[in-house]
Amino acid sequence: MKQRIEDVGEFLKENGIKPSYQRIKIYEYLVKYYNHPTVDMIYRELVPKIPTLSKTTVYNTLNLFIEKKITAIIVIDENETRYDAGTSVHGHFQCNECARIDDIDIDLSKIEIPIPEHYEVSEQHFYFKGKCSNCN
Amino acid sequence: MKQRIEDVGEFLKENGIKPSYQRIKIYEYLVKYYNHPTVDMIYRELVPKIPTLSKTTVYNTLNLFIEKKITAIIVIDENETRYDAGTSVHGHFQCNECARIDDIDIDLSKIEIPIPEHYEVSEQHFYFKGKCSNCN
DNA sequence: ATTGTATTTTGTAACCGTTACAAATATGGT
DNA sequence: ACCATATTTGTAACGGTTACAAAATACAAT
Q1: pTM here?
Q2: Domains of chain B and CATH, by start
Q3: Which long-range contacts (CB under 8 A, 24 or more apart) does B69-73 make?
Q4: Which of A26, B19, B61, B118 could staple B9 via S-S, CB 3.0–4.6 A?
């Protein structure tokens, strides 16, 4: 879910990422909207400000963020990958009509998951699909 | 999760699907292994028995199964779509090493999900990633 | 059985999101 | 300013999936 980031450049540095202009703008996009965007959504928003921006840069940057664990991939849309600056465990809801993705707060303490013996869990994901209030 | 299907041809008919040879074999694969296969896994297994089989047929058939709701898509692998003949709500675990997917039984009654007002939920998905016992 | 019609299967080409790669550009230290 | 390094960019390739039309099959009526 959302977390306050005061200085994006500083935040990137703290996480071992040299804060280039493109990287700052891309991360700022993530924390400004928290809208679980596709690469294309980020690209279309930033290109007017950074005319030379390449989609490859957006891909590279997001993959770097993921490697440094300040961004998570949300595997929920069959067609496009979604990205989330919120890296804590929480759920998502995707509307089948407008494709928007909302955060869902899930109380993990109440959930018992029968993971088999000798299995090691590194990620937990919960997602729902249906129709959001705008499309209903 | 797993459900017993005695006569696949009859089962397909009951669900409004004309039971062609290919369709029967593909559905038989799903219920024989319940291994959440990719298209390629199904294709490679069946080609020796059906030498003329086309991958397009596998895609077409699975999409038909999904339309008729006797198969579900599992969105868990970033690269390839997975298919599941078990259409009840349950969880999945994918191993990051060998990519295999196991079923996880989840007690839904204990889970409270704070879905926003006027949202309509049609699907619930739970999945986990990590290392399975074979790879540990 | 034969014909005609609709359905299913098949192969090819296209589509699209993503990545590989090398050239161009920017950055930082001396 | 110069050099070494890191970053960005554009193009081409890759791979999973789908569109499409032709070929094969199944089915009904005569």
Answers
A1: 0.92
A2: 1-136 (1.10.10.10)
A3: B69/B15, B70/B11, B70/B12, B70/B15, B70/B17, B70/B27, B71/B27, B71/B30, B73/A78
A4: B19
